[in-house]
Specification:
Helices cover about 45% and strands about 20% of the residues. By secondary structure, the chain is α/β, with parallel strands linked by helices.
Length: about 290
């Protein structure tokens, strides 16, 4: 296969990923959910939006425990890779006072996320833009920290991703990963939240990530398997949903659409049988 064919294949894969996440009418659905809460775009808070815009296992609770390990401060410039709707970026900017730049492949996520930033008055501290994580358009040493939450399952070339992040971090900067990783041999059932078919999934093992970070000259400083936390989180979510007679007005079902229940069921089953686990990794660029 020549370079042109490789380029076309990569472009087609990126378009396939963006199409997978694109949901028509997402902003309107979120606005309807906000209204059901008795709020308006002018009165809704970052906390109110958390159930829909923290699109990863554990939601806001997971983001808090994960971002704590990066030690963010108000002077930091932070990169959110695969930012989605920007929920974690808004949380970090609100809690830690830092400036966050978010990058995501899906145009609809970025445009919706910018509107949500305007609703909560964070347009000056959170900047979201569309782009490819393997060719990020930023200068070297531009960021004090970087992170990604449930992004690597869509990226095959993890060494290239880690190398790209390494270039963008200042010496001593930290890179946090919170991804679903392959931890067992049981076949995965599709669709899953990040892929409708097995051919679309790029889920890797913890060893894949460790090797990619080492090749990029990162030092791994912490790793934590969050399987037990995930199972507890989903059990609590099921209980709340049953007590309420259905999902709340804001939640991941708005992002995943009509297939949300089967995608989540397959995910929970895979975590329960130890085929998958959400895993945190914190790495550091040498001083």
């Amino acid at each position: 296969m020549n370079a042109t064919e490789n380029s076309r294949g990569a472009r087609a894969e990126r378009e396939d990923i963006a199409d997978h996440y694109t949901r028509a009418g997402l902003l309107a659905a979120i606005e309807d959910g906000v209204a059901t809460l008795g709020k308006t775009p002018a009165s809704v808070s970052v906390e109110d939006l958390a159930p829909v815009d923290e699109f990863h296992v554990g939601g806001r609770e997971a983001s808090e425990a994960f971002l704590d390990q990066l030690g963010l401060t108000p002077s930091d410039r932070v990169l959110d890779i695969g930012c989605g709707l920007g929920g974690s970026a808004r949380f970090a900017a609100t809690r830690d006072g830092c400036h966050v730049t978010g990058l995501d492949l899906t145009h609809g996520f970025v445009s919706t996320g910018r509107t949500l930033c305007d609703w909560v008055g964070l347009g000056d501290r959170v900047s979201l833009q569309q782009g490819n994580a393997l060719t990020m358009p930023f200068e070297a040493d531009a960021f004090d920290a970087a992170y990604m939450l449930h992004v690597g399952m869509n990226i095959a070339d993890k060494p290239a991703l880690c190398a790209a992040v390494h270039r963008l971090l200042r010496p001593g900067g930290r890179f946090g990963i919170y991804d679903l990783m392959r931890t067992g041999e049981e076949p995965l059932q599709y669709p899953l939240p990040w892929a409708s078919l097995a051919a679309q999934s790029r889920v890797g093992t913890p060893s894949d990530y460790r090797a990619a970070m080492a090749a990029a000259r990162f030092t791994l400083v912490a790793e934590r398997n969050r399987r037990d936390f995930a199972l507890d989180f989903f059990a609590r979510l099921r209980a709340r949903t049953a007590a309420a007679g259905g999902p709340g007005p804001l939640g991941p079902h708005l992002v995943m659409g009509d297939t949300a229940s089967i995608r989540l069921r397959h995910l929970v089953d895979a975590i329960a049988n130890s085929s998958l686990a959400p895993v945190e990794m914190i790495a550091e660029k040498a001083q």
